Amino acid sequence: MPDIDWPAVHAEALDILREYLRIDTTNPPGNEAPAARFLGGLLEAEGIPVEYVEIDPGREAVHARLGGDGSKRPFLLSNHLDVVPVEAAHWTKPPFEAVLEEGRVYGRGAIDMKGFGVMQLVALLTAKRQGLPLKRDLWFLGTPDEEAGSARGMGWIVEHRPDLVDVEFALNEGDSGRLSGGRTVFSVAANEKFGCPLRLVATGAGGHGSFIHTDNSMVRLAKALVRLDEWQRGLTFAPDTRAYVDRLAEAGVLDGGTDEALAASIRARRGLTPMFMNTLNVTMVNAGVKRNVLPSRSEAILDCRLLPGQDTEEWRQQVAEVVADLEIAVEFVNDPQPTAMPRTEWDTELFHAIEASVRSVFEDAVVAPTMTIGATDNRFLRARGVVSYGFAPAVYSREENNGFHGNDEFISVETFNTGCELTYDIVRRLCT
Ligand SMILES: [Zn+2]
Fold it and tell me: 113 C-alpha to center of ligand 1: Å?
């Protein structure tokens, strides 16, 4: 197999990224078709079969298949084409011109997630040019609408075109590498929390505001909210999150001397605690129509995020027990609410390929499975039994990470180049 001329690949990848960043796919409205056509065109030019899937006028997904010998099931590289809106007044660089300055490329989507999308695309181009003897197909999927909930993106695809995601493994956004406690830590998101919003509905008698009342629905609701706020919940360890903290503790990034010390370290970190418990926050309250009318109905919305594998009905009942008021109904906001999100295995061929690739460049890196506390498109694939990980093989600096939905979003050329090489290397290890 010929050696890869990486400097030439880097230069080509950078050109592709800059042109891609100039295509404005701000969602709403998205208008991702030109982006789908741009990426697809590059793959087609290389002789890779491409399909464009129109979901709405102006909104297309792009899907490409580089064929393997069929002895293993496909591997999907998946990314979203849309970006979130910019607050133009807070940007010092034009957000859609891909300005290259001091080794950084600026533009909306550089981090979230056109940069990683191009790393994936370049992995396909390179695999094709190298003539990699693939044991499994290598697929590429760029989707619309991730930033607005994916109903016109991955959500639509799994329902209407499940053949496009009928794979064994998938890689998408979620987590990445970063510096932590003096070590380079690569967190591979094998799972994520899933939403289970609840509505509390308190009822009372109503009446005139000039009387003495003992049955005010709003007071009833307020007391229930205080009980929920004071509810102490324990930490729940699962195989992936247990491995995550164990590996961090081994590396000295987290205090894991005893189980108590480990629990204390977890509870001390706001970003870490939600990986070990269901969370609940009251985010909306609605009651009352007039100053002198007692509200006979008061409502609150609870933003609940559950650990994978947790039963939603069980959770609803636990909340109702803490509310402890038969005049307050505890209801699901989503109808129907899925019963649970299955937990995806972390100790797989894909994880080992990632670990080996990362270690080939960052010898003493910590590579650990983790869980994202927000939602990504991975949830649609995991629900179908696909081992789908959220992981960009790049070390994002704190500044780069601020680019997620932030101002002056950029990716450094160095981060991007390493990401291109590692994405290809993961493909090579998993597919040959
Ligand atoms: Zn994203």
Answer: 5
